[in-house]
Amino acid sequence: MRVCVIGAGYVGLATAVMFGKLGHEVVCADVDERRVRAVNSGKSPFYEPPLEKELSRLVKKGMLKASKDVLGSARESAFIFICVQTPSLSSGRIDIRALKAASRSVAKVLRKSEDYKVVVVKSTVVPSTTDTVVREVLEVGSKKTAGRDFGLCMNPEFLQEGSALKDSMEPTRIVIGAIDKRCGNALMKLYSPISSDKIRTDLRTAEMIKYASNVFLATKISYANEMANICYRLGIDSDVVLNAAGKDPRIGPLFLKPGLGFGGSCLPKDVKALRQKARSMQYPGRLLNAVLAVNDEQPFEASFILKEVLGTLERRRIAVLGLSFKGNVDDVRETRAIPLIAGLLASGAEVVAYDPMAASNFIELMPTIMYASSAKEALDGADACIIQADWPEFKRLGRKEFSRMRNPVVVDGRRFLVPAEVEKAGARYYGIGYKPANEP
What we know:
Helix content is 44%, strand content 13%. It has helices spanning 10-21, 33-40, 49-61, 70-75, 97-112, 129-142, 164-169, 181-190, 203-234, 238-246, 267-280, 286-297, 300-310, 337-346, 359-363, 375-379, 399-402, 419-424; strands spanning 2-6, 25-29, 64-67, 79-82, 118-121, 151-154, 174-178, 198-201, 317-321, 350-354, 370-371, 384-387, 409-412, 428-431.
């Protein structure tokens, strides 16, 4: 089967590699020439080593290629997956211009095609987008009718950056929203080699499942952070509390880890988009407001801890380790490093930052701060350090690195270090929801 994937971003490339691994001939269409060149050379446009390894193998076998020719790529394909980005606008609504542009291109293909094709929206869109906006663009442009002349499905993704290949090949569930049984059956057959549970719905329900899932994850994170902040002020180790709470099967341990807040391309955008959609229907979305409010304030918890420890941040040199929104990715979208560093600078601190992979992306956002070429260099002469992203190399920091600090204080903004090991290496350990037992 020939599959066309429009969009060589994170979701698009993961989708393309998945179908290539399943034995289909895949073409990934994108208007970005840099991405097309990268894919055709077997390189991922973003940092995701396991995905890149499989991509390289498929390109060499001739099972996957990229092209700037969206129309030509879609023309010969039985399935056309739309995987373009839908970023946030300042209002919180999603930007669907790329989605409309991709749909117009697909409509041109449908108009000239005699074959039945299934168009699958995989981009994250608020409920009612596929059956109104996308359907209208396709039908007007093609002069054909969805559900009769071509199929229209909504197939949300549930990927985590850093594990895209595994999440694609072993998904927790596959949701197939379809305009009719014919295209739903066709998409079910395409996914048949994957044994995960498959849930069939209408288009709007499939769209809402994606938002309900991500909003719940965001809610768990903000809940964990709220509990951790209270625990810190009470002198209680929040890890003990949350680990015990997570053993209740009604709660569960996943995403119940305190930190500096959630970022990335999905959770902040999706909570804001659903809130905006709710407001458009005169529903206030009180929980959504609270989840975002906690997340907006959470990066400043690190500054609060440092002010308690150091007294003032004025003219203090603070090392910020990790600039991506989480470890093992180079994605800086909605990273909590931005408000964290902005807050430190507003308090009069001097910031030196380091990230193993994301520094070049982050410099475009904050070009005026100092950047180090290693964690060791960032710690040199620092009055304290904040670990903002959980990169594995930060776990290997020890006495040799901490001894370079003027004041060896470590604030673990992701609670992934072992306090006793940090203390043994000669530094004072503080974390979100944790302070040393001997301090008031």
